[in-house]
Structures are given as structure tokens and as C-alpha cells.
Amino acid sequence: MSTWIWAAVLLAAVFAAAWGSDHLAEPLRKLRKQWGLSAAAGGSLIGIATASPEVGVNVTSAVRGVTDIGLGAMLGSTAIGIPALVSVGYIATRKRDIPDDPGHQQHLREHLLRVDPKAATVQALPYLGILALAALLILPAPWQGLQPIDGGVLLAAYAAYAAQAFFRGREKPEQVEWSRKGIWMAVAGVGVLALGAYFTVISTQNLVQAFGISPIIGGLFITAPVAALPEIFASWKVSRSGQITPALTNIIGDHAMTMTVGFLPLALVGTQIDNFRLVWVSFVFVALMPALYAAFVRWGGSEPGFRRWQVLTLVGAYATYVAVVVVWVLELV
Description:
The protein is mainly α and 333 residues long. Helices cover 77% and strands 2% of the residues. It has a single domain (3-171, 179-329), classed as NCX, central ion-binding region (A middle domain of Talin 1, Up-down Bundle), CATH 1.20.1420.
């Protein structure tokens, strides 16, 4: 098949997986309200749905014996996710009126994208702890790579992360209505998500063969950026509706699940690291993003959120990552 056809299959597969996760996300949003979770804490719950395509890709990668694609997609998506969604959220809210935000005019004058400060303490800082644990399990030479025991440890870490987010972010519960149609759409969403994840891996396999590149590079720079597109579109829509904190905290919950539960399929089949320099450099930048996120939200100014220069700093950090990989790791320039 032509390279262009596989590229189209990849795009369609990613959007199919996103459609499936969207229909899984709606019941989880209702649960957030019913359980009385704050917007910041609810990001952990919604992250179960938004991270499910990455988890599905890793399951398929493990089953097909191409774990490097899954590993590359995980690292690539967690590196690009925060800069992409914060940038889109900032651009989407540069209009005159935002619902339910009486201070928006002032925020426009100050070039501020305001976010609930709990996003730093409830989401970003615990996520940094998860990344430190993942690096400790994967990178040191004596036990380098992923083994089944690593998957169990990371699964326990996600359970602890979700528990602290739920208990620290409690609010008054709300009454919600459940429909049979919504439940069946969620079930259908799981099926479509699995199908989309399968064809995401298949198309990436064919694209890396066509371009003559390694599977982990294909995961990093082909699968991951394309997989970020549905989240970018969703962030634009949610941010413009005035729900800025949910739009910009879901990504942390997404990444926390990706870097824990997402590693489980790769750990169960055993995954070796062939390009150690690429993986540790990726880990450095994957950790840098939430560190900047937390610092900007919590200590970046008199009001919590992102200012224009901070948004540009996040974008610059990702551009630096790409440059380091291309020039120093792969030595393509």
C-alpha cells in the first residue's frame, strides 16, 4: 500500500480511538459530578478515558511484538501533550467573552490563561513523582527495560495517585441522570477504541518500514503528534466554553495513566531499551513539562495560570527536545 494510504489509515485510526474515548469520557464526567470531585481532581478520572487510546496502542504493540512503537508513542505523547494543550487553550480564550468568567477582560489585558492552582498540587506534582518512579524502574543499568514486576509497581503507583487526587479534591456531590443510550454508547466506544488502537499500530509499522526508520522514532514523531490531534481539538472546544481548568488538567491525568497503566502491557511481555540515549533524553523532557506546568501555575505570578511568555516557554521546551533528538541523539544534522 502507498505511504499516503497508510498515513490516512493512521489519521482515521487515531480519530476512531478518540471517538471511542470521548464516549467513555462522558460517563466518567457524570461520575465526577456524582462523586463530588473538583475540576482539578476530576482530571484524574477523565484521564482514564483520554489515556485509553495510548493504553490500547501499547496492548496492540505488545501483542504484535513491536513494543518500541508503543514506548515511542508513550514518550512522544507525554512530551508534546502539555505544550500543545496549554498553547491551544491560550489561543482559544483570546476572545472578548468567556462564559462564567467575569474577570476575563482583565485576563485578556494581562495576557493570562487562568487555571485553578490546585492543578499544580493535586495533579502536576504527584505526576512528577510517578515519572521519577518510572525512570528508577526503567533506566538503571542492572534492571534496564521493563519487566512484569515493573508493571505491578507502576499500577500500584497509579492507584495511589488517583486516590490522593480524589480525596484531596472533594466537593459537594451533584445529582446526575443516566440514560441507557449513554451506557451503550460507552460500550460501543470501547470497541471502536480498540479497533482504532489496532490500526494505529498497523499503520505505524508500515510507515516506519516505508521511511526506513526505527519503530521507536516512528512512535515518537509519527504516532504521538497525530494522536495528540483529537485532544487538541477537544481542548479548543472546552476552553472556549469557559471550562479552562478541566481542559488543561485532563492532560495530566491522561499522562499519569499513560506512564503507569500504559506501561503494563509492555512490562508483561518484557521490553528492552535499544536506544538508551533517546529514552533517557525523552524522560528528561517528559519530566520538564509538568515541572514547568506546576511552577507556572503555582508560582508564576499574582494569579495562577499561564502568561504569554510562559506558554511560549513550554513550546520552546518541546522545540528544544526535538532539536536535541535530531542533532545529538540521532545525529541527523
